[in-house]
Design brief:
By secondary structure, the chain is mainly α. It contains seven helices and no strands. Helix content is about 75%, strand content about 0%.
Amino acid sequence: MTIPTTHEETFEAGLAVRKKVLGDAHVERSLGNTTEFGRPIQELVTEYCWGAIWTREGLPLHSRSLINLAMLTALNRPHELGVHVRGALNNGVSREEIQEVFLQTAIYVGVPAALESFRIAESVFQELNVND
């Protein structure tokens, strides 16, 4: 992969990865529904989170998804967790791997946070008809 060198290249690379992980519809909705007030944060997230970090070759997308699930559980960010459960599935993460991440977070982060993550993941699995 060619390393982006300009802000525009980093943004475009981030947009491509963001769409690959979260799906075109989600990203188009996020960017399309933004206000002038919210536009800068969407651009920042796309360029830096997705373009500068998710495009790095040091970790595969699968691993990045597992890390995000653990961090979002620790931070108790339910909306973002649901988004990233979908992304993890898109990146080939299995239900069993998601379950294991949440079990480990129960020990290191706390049972209430892990319970909420299990609930969110189950809701996403039902919505997407993802079975065992």
